[in-house]
């Protein structure tokens, strides 16, 4: 097993960890403490793995997550949902409302309801505070840090052993974070109930569990990460099957909303385009077109090919393929944004701007459109307009690293070097490069010509990093 895969085992939602044979004690931690553990883990995950920060991807997964949370009701945490670039079959929920999906898991999914069922399951673990219940109250933060830090020291990974976790490498008590059968049943039951309330068919849970069983058999003795932290898929499948059989709403076909999966497949192909080898993706799309009897899958496979052609600057072919998708979905304005992006990449900026202006005016809450318009305004030299648009995206997607890079680049072009360093500091922070981020933010905090708002925020971030490092 490679060093990187071993680190994944440690980070992937806290594998079953028992350190030094120390006893396990179960107690609950405070909400604030859960948030701080989540922050520590987030910086470490970002430092080790690529989080896909494309606003299109970021917006979709967060909107889907919040559609569940709107059903769940008020929460202690501000939830954030991330897509991690990795071939591993995994998803996990960290303390503090952080939910991660690995691209290897998303690749196996067939419908949005399957994605929604796993997402709701992970939220169920956070709502039930299953991880918090397994951490000893006197050493809970240091235990997480110790587990990750020891992994870093043993494997020579500086981001873990010398980064945000370095201040917590102290003796701690052991923990066991594999979810119990009761935990899994509770999370499945909550997921089932929430999907019912959303009028989304929870039978999709069966489909995902069957996929898990198939992958387990395919990989024989090497269990995927998800099944190490979410054990007993056979028992889970039996439990979910019993819930489905007792669901009288299954007989009321009109009760459950049928989705055409357009948005899901568009999301999935966007991810594949960023993670899959180009030739393999072409074969993947061609096979989907040739073998699928589902019109949606066939159409959206052409969307995947359009992304590939656009990436290789085959503009005419990309637009031709995209036109076929638009003909099938004439009311999906997001495809017009995709078209504008192709024009912009081909330096047809005025043409792209004309499309994006109309879309953003009609759909001001679509951050993918706002972001693309900001890029076009920037390339046209309209820095003030671009800055306002980027700021809107940063407000709506505050965990998106890329937006701070763009703001830093724009500020540098305007000669505002200290402001640029501030935004680049935030960019590196959200990329998990904590040491570099601290250097940028420290320099900003000492300058007198920096706007007070920016200087105060830099000081607040530095103070938070200091506290996280000092906690034992």
Description:
The protein has 472 residues and is mainly alpha-helical. Among the domains are: 3-179, Zincin-like (2-Layer Sandwich); 400-472. 65% of the residues lie in helices and 4% in strands. It has 23 helices and four strands. A four-stranded mixed sheet has the order 1-2-4-3, with helices on both faces. Strand 3 (91-94) and strand 4 form a beta hairpin. Helix 1 packs antiparallel against helix 6. It is globular, with a radius of gyration of 23 Å. The model is unreliable at 1-27 and 136-177 (pLDDT under 50).
Would you kindly provide a brief summary of this structure?
The protein is mainly alpha-helical. It has helices spanning 3-11, 31-48, 55-72, 103-106, 112-128, 140-155, 158-161, 181-197, 204-218, 225-229, 233-245, 262-275, 278-291, 295-311, 315-328, 334-345, 349-362, 367-379, 383-396, 401-413, 417-430, 434-445, 452-470; strands spanning 50-51, 80-85, 91-94, 98-102.
Which key terms come to mind for this protein?
472 residues, mainly alpha, Zincin-like, four-stranded mixed beta sheet, 65% helix, 4% strand, disordered N terminus
Could you report the average pLDDT, rounded to the nearest whole number?
83
CATH architectural grouping of the domain at 3-179: 2-Layer Sandwich
Trace the largest sheet across and list its strands. Answer: 1-2-4-3
CATH H-level superfamily of the domain at 3-179: Metalloproteases ("zincins"), catalytic domain
| Number of helical regions | 23
Distance between the termini: 31 Å
| Main sheet properties | 4 strands, mixed
Radius of gyration: 23 Å
Task: Tell me the total number of β-strands.
Answer: 4
- Unreliable spans are 1-27, 136-177
Overall helicity: 55-70%
**What's the CATH topology label of the domain at 3-179?**
Zincin-like
Computed structural class:
mainly alpha
């Amino acid at each position: 097993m490679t060093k990187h895969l071993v680190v994944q085992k440690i980070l992937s939602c806290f594998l079953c960890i028992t350190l030094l044979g120390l006893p396990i004690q179960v107690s609950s931690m405070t909400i604030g403490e859960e948030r701080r553990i989540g922050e520590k883990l987030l910086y470490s995950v970002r430092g080790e793995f690529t989080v896909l920060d494309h606003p299109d991807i970021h917006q979709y997964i967060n909107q889907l997550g919040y559609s569940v949370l709107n059903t769940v009701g008020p929460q202690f945490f501000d939830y954030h949902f991330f897509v991690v670039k990795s071939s591993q079959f995994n998803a996990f929920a960290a303390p503090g409302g952080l939910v991660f999906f690995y691209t290897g898991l998303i690749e196996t999914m067939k419908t949005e309801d399957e994605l929604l069922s796993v997402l709701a399951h992970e939220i169920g673990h956070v709502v039930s505070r299953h991880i918090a219940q397994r951490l000893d109250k006197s050493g809970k933060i240091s235990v997480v840090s110790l587990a990750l830090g020891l992994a870093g020291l043993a494997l020579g990974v500086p981001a873990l052993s010398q980064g945000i976790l370095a201040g917590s490498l102290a003796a701690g008590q052991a923990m066991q974070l594999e979810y119990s059968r009761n935990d899994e049943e509770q999370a499945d039951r909550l997921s089932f109930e929430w999907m019912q309330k959303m009028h989304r068919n929870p039978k999709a849970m069966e489909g995902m569990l069957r996929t898990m069983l198939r992958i387990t058999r395919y990989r024989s003795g090497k269990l995927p990460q998800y099944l190490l932290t979410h054990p007993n898929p056979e028992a889970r499948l039996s439990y979910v099957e019993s819930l489905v059989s007792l669901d009288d709403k299954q007989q009321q076909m009109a009760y459950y909303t049928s989705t055409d999966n357009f948005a899901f497949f568009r999301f999935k192909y966007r991810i594949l385009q960023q993670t899959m080898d180009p030739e393999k993706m072409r074969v993947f799309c061609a096979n989907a077109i040739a073998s699928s009897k589902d019109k949606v899958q066939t159409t959206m496979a052409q969307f995947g090919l359009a992304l590939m052609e656009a990436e290789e600057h085959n503009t005419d072919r990309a637009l031709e393929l995209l036109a076929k998708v638009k003909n099938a979905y004439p009311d999906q304005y997001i495809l017009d944004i995709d078209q504008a992006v192709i024009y912009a990449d081909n330096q047809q900026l005025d043409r792209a701007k004309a499309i994006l202006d109309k879309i953003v005016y009609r759909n001001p809450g679509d951050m993918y459109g706002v972001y693309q318009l900001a890029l076009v305004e920037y390339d046209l030299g309209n820095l003030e307009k671009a800055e306002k648009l980027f700021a809107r995206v940063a407000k709506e997607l505050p965990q998106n690293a890329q937006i701070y890079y763009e703001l830093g680049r724009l500020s540098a072009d305007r000669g505002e070097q200290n402001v640029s360093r501030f935004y680049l500091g935030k960019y590196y922070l959200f990329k998990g490069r904590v040491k570099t981020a601290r250097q940028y933010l420290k320099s900003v905090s000492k300058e007198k010509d920096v706007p007070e708002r920016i200087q105060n925020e830099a000081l607040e971030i530095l103070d938070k990093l200091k506290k996280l490092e000092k906690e034992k």
